[in-house]
Amino acid sequence: MYTGPRILFPVACMCVLLLNAIGVWCAKEEASLALSCGSDKGGTDADGRKWDSDSKYLGSGESKTAMATFQDPSLLSQVPYMDARIFSKEFSYKFPIASKKRYWVRFHFYPSTYPGLNISNSYFSVAANDITLLSNFSASITAQALTQAYLVREYSLAPVDSDSLTITFKPSDKYPGSFAFVNGIELVPTPDLFDSATLVGFSDQSVDATSANMQTMFRLNVAGQYIPANNDSGGLLRTWYDDLPYLYGAAIGVNAQADAKLEINYKDLPDYAAPVDVYRTARSMGPDKNVNLGYNLTWIFQVDANFTYVVRLHFCEFIFSKINQRVFNIYINNQTAQTDPPADVIGWTGEQGVPTYKDYTVYINDGPGDEEIWVAMRPSTESKPEYYDALLNGLEIFKMDTAKNLAGPNPQLSEMLAKAELTSTRSFSNENTSNNIQVIGGAAGGAAAIGLVAAICIVVYQRKRRIPGTDTHTSSWLPIYGHSQTSGTKSTISGKSNASSHLSAMAQGLCRRFSLPEIRQATKNFDESYVIGVGGFGKVYKGVLDGKTKVAIKRSNPSSEQGVNEFVTEIEMLSKLRHKHLVSLIGFCEEDEEMCLVYDYMALGTLREHIYNIKKPHLSWKQRLEICIGSARGLHYLHTGAKYTIIHRDVKTTNILLDENWVAKVSDFGLSKTGPNMDNGHVSTVVKGSFGYLDPEYFRRQQLTEKSDIYSFGVVLFEVLCARPALNPSLPKDQVSLADWALNNTRKGTLEDIIDPHLKGKIVPECLKKFSDTAEKCLSDNGIDRPSMGDVLWNLEFCLQLEESASSDGSSTRSSRRGASGTSSEDISLRNRPPLHISNLSLGSESDLNEEAEDTNSAIFSQIVNPTGR
Ligand SMILES: *[C@@H]1O[C@H](CO)[C@@H](O)[C@H](O)[C@H]1NC(C)=O
Ligand SMILES: *[C@@H]1O[C@H](CO)[C@@H](O)[C@H](O)[C@H]1NC(C)=O
Ligand SMILES: *[C@@H]1O[C@H](CO)[C@@H](O)[C@H](O)[C@H]1NC(C)=O
Ligand SMILES: *[C@@H]1O[C@H](CO)[C@@H](O)[C@H](O)[C@H]1NC(C)=O
Ligand SMILES: *[C@@H]1O[C@H](CO)[C@@H](O)[C@H](O)[C@H]1NC(C)=O
Ligand SMILES: *[C@@H]1O[C@H](CO)[C@@H](O)[C@H](O)[C@H]1NC(C)=O
Ligand SMILES: *[C@@H]1O[C@H](CO)[C@@H](O)[C@H](O)[C@H]1NC(C)=O
Ligand SMILES: *[C@@H]1O[C@H](CO)[C@@H](O)[C@H](O)[C@H]1NC(C)=O
Ligand SMILES: *[C@@H]1O[C@H](CO)[C@@H](O)[C@H](O)[C@H]1NC(C)=O
Ligand SMILES: CC(=O)N[C@H]1CO[C@H](CO)[C@@H](O)[C@@H]1O
């Protein structure tokens, strides 16, 4: 098909002269390539994009193909990740390209287990013609450090005077058994994307980037949502992410969105600069002048030292329309990038709705703590604008090559992460998953005001808390993002972390403030033998306060600002939420940089400890139902009981705790999201949560709604019924995910075959049916089809009633059917329910904060479900 370079040229000439139709053919010669490496037919990915086999482009050297033995749940589709091409010696691909044209090259790596290979041994270099893109690269280490299952690396290759591109993979000769691999390659012709840009700190100097080779480090739709490759502008197939994980500190400004009627008019800007969605959303500092004058709106990015970076800032003013209304200074690494004149978007573009971008270059030295790019904005007081505010719509950071090299070092696993990795390795007996990346948990990335660094700490803690042999796979999903997670303690702000000053007066008034000596005394000076777990925030100690009250004390890792944020989030949230089925916060301690949260002690531990891998007696079905009902109440309260909808985000059996009376309490709100502005009914965010429990819709659309919690709760229900982990990679493929496996069996009518053997024959069939119907609805693919937590609760109550009436009769299911006559399960279905129930069910007012109110409600509940009372 490809006719070769020499023939191509005249054909190309003719095309220009000939008909349009042939012109189209010419353009096709430049069309982009998407190759699924090692696959013989290619395939279609989750976005509907077609990937071809790479077999037509194999150049010199030997290679073999392999298929990963495990599909990580974060892989949205098998293509292009499950197939790989493996190189044990130097190997080249050869691609036809248009001469003098800039190209994106994207590599997709899935460092998983491939038969007969140990992925930890894979170190390799990648070169494009004579440019080194990666060297001594370990996809496995990088993915672990970023807590991603797979990696995407994107490069922009400068135009060359040649019509072929050679991409060479070379395994390192420093490691025995080393090999190289790749899962996907994309080649996309692009316009000239770069120009010259001023060097920050030297306003008279600029750096010419027209002929530089670049690596994309970050690409963010500021205050907007994830934009998939298919929705990029100009056909450049770029992916844009949310900026929240990179914001510094608690002052993160406000999101603004352009009026739907306002049209974005690109004017002189080419449409490939960025998609409309980037320009329609922006982050500004906020409405309050005095607040805005007191802080800098700041983003922080980890990068490799010894390189020059192009920082591209995208702007589009859609609120104001006159010059000198919103004027601000831009700083990069504490140096003025744009002050003279300061940034005035209308001044640049002339009118509202017209986008533009500005490029700045900055050199990053190699000194301790230097491997960061800070982008900060604050109002320009000198120009006396009408409003003291700043604005940013989008941001990209590119690394420029130095002497034809773009490769940086592998990130270092933080000590904690390395330890967690060890634990997880030990806990897996299955050799095929033993040093597999997907066992590295990770909730990196997503939560508001929680940076990547903090999130990684959380991951580690959560993992360490895992019971060996089980497998909560959490992982984040931030492809492309820079490989720069070096340490978990970088953003220390010593001396500044006075958390109480971050706390609202209300929160301080609602819970007790302990002194550090009190806490030290309660925990024998944080004695290691008092550690009962490691949570989202730090180690958890048991302790005894006032000589009698048993408490659990979470002690923070005092080293990060993110820690402070989370601390504050948790106190603010928990102190206002009081509910019988939420773990209650007794108080906190904040002194000498120690931050502790003090909770009720949950004597019986996590729900999971009582379901499988246990030595304890097995819970009866009724006990399990009651625990499910209790947790559903807690979640229902979170969703509807407070002023704002609170989305838990990490519902799972280890976050449901049991007190000494078997009362279930939902815990771990450090990562919860509130949605005061859930106008569209969702919060847009980077995916986080625990694998096995993650809502597939949340994955697809990166929009969080309370229905994501419903999905996770559905998994919890099946976990309780089937007594197996949400994910168990040691099982055959179709059984790995409990959600899929249980749904499959429910639909086939074989659910009874997979329930906990200890429950077999002990559940009233109607109850089992109701329970599994409820769980199945929770797992509906689309959030809109899932019931609300109130509905779930109602159905579970009904199950319990079915179970109880049958067992109190001590008779067969036939009598229970009679007992429930008149309220067959269909009558209870959501739509047919009496309206009375709904109004009396509401937990919506803040006066419901105390347990009495909750109990009243539960009494009403039971009354309606069970007309005879109980
Ligand atoms: C591990 O992988 C090998 C090679 O693919 C396979 O033969 C073996 O059955 C796998 N073992 C397990 C426990 O999955
Ligand atoms: C893989 O290689 C690493 C490092 O070389 C080694 O520690 C590990 O035990 C190997 N794993 C297997 C399953 O051979
Ligand atoms: C992508 O574009 C399609 C079609 O325009 C639209 O329906 C979809 O919502 C977009 N997706 C995102 C995440 O913006
Ligand atoms: C950066 O350059 C300096 C001086 O050439 C060198 O000593 C240092 O090792 C380099 N750092 C990195 C991370 O490559
Ligand atoms: C910028 O200044 C802040 C304090 O003002 C400091 O913590 C930070 O390290 C500086 N950043 C860089 C890259 O120099
Ligand atoms: C904002 O950043 C600039 C430049 O780094 C710094 O001089 C200024 O002190 C910062 N202002 C605040 C309030 O942190
Ligand atoms: C290659 O990377 C590993 C892991 O980051 C590092 O320990 C090693 O020193 C590197 N080797 C070379 C030759 O740079
Ligand atoms: C924190 O701030 C509060 C009030 O602003 C003050 O009373 C307290 O002493 C401060 N604590 C520390 C450790 O600085
Ligand atoms: C259900 O499982 C059977 C075999 O266990 C498999 O053939 C079938 O494809 C599965 N169906 C779905 C929808 O996953
Ligand atoms: C069963 C029950 O408690 N019903 C109450 C529902 O709420 C209305 C008013 O809000 C009361 O009048 C009902 O008694």
Task: Provide tags for this entry.
870 residues; alpha+beta; Jelly Rolls; 13-stranded mixed beta sheet; six-stranded mixed beta sheet; globular; disordered C terminus; Protein kinase domain-containing protein; signal; nucleotide-binding; kinase
Short description:
Residues 807-825 have a biased composition (Low complexity). This protein has 22 helices and 39 strands.
Structural class: alpha+beta
What's the β-strand tally?
39
**Amino- and carboxy-terminal Cα gap:** 78 Å
Total helical segments:
22
Oligomer class: single chain
Residue runs with pLDDT of under 50 for 5 or more positions: 1-29, 415-501, 674-688, 810-870
What can be said about the biggest beta sheet? 13 strands, mixed
**Assigned CATH architecture of the largest domain:** Orthogonal Bundle
Provide the β-strand percentage band: 15-25%
Query: What name does the CATH topology of the largest domain carry?
Result: Transferase(Phosphotransferase), domain 1
CATH superfamily of the largest domain: Transferase(Phosphotransferase) domain 1
Fraction of residues in H or I helices: 25-40%
The Cα radius of gyration reads: 29 Å
Overall pLDDT = 74
Number of structurally distinct domains: 4
Q: What hetero molecules are in the model?
A: 2-acetamido-2-deoxy-beta-D-glucopyranose
CATH class group of the largest domain: Mainly Alpha
Biased composition (Polar residues): 856-870
Subcellular location: Membrane
Biased composition (Low complexity): 807-825
Region (Disordered): 807-870
